[in-house]
Every structure is written in C-alpha cells, then in structure tokens.
Amino acid sequence: MASVMICLQNMGCCNINLVTPTHVVPQILKALDMAAGLGLRLPLVYNSRL
To answer: How many domains does the chain have?
Structure first.
C-alpha cells in the first residue's frame, strides 16, 4: 500500500481518500509510516459513515 500512495503522489493526485477503512486501520498506519519515510506528503482523507 505504501508504494500505491507514492505512485498516486507521483501521478499528481491532490490527496489520498480512504473510504470506510476502519477494518484495515492497522495496515494503513503501517503503510503510512513506510510511505512517509519514502517522501509521501499528500494529505489523507478518512471517510466513514459515522
């Protein structure tokens, strides 16, 4: 997932929108830490139905 985040940034995306991601939060946090180490600077949007 970290490489996908970096790829989106390199493609010119404005943000990374996570839609109803509650069930995968531990994986997202790990990938986000890795992606930040690789230079990720995009804002994340956490969308949930709550």
So the answer is: 1
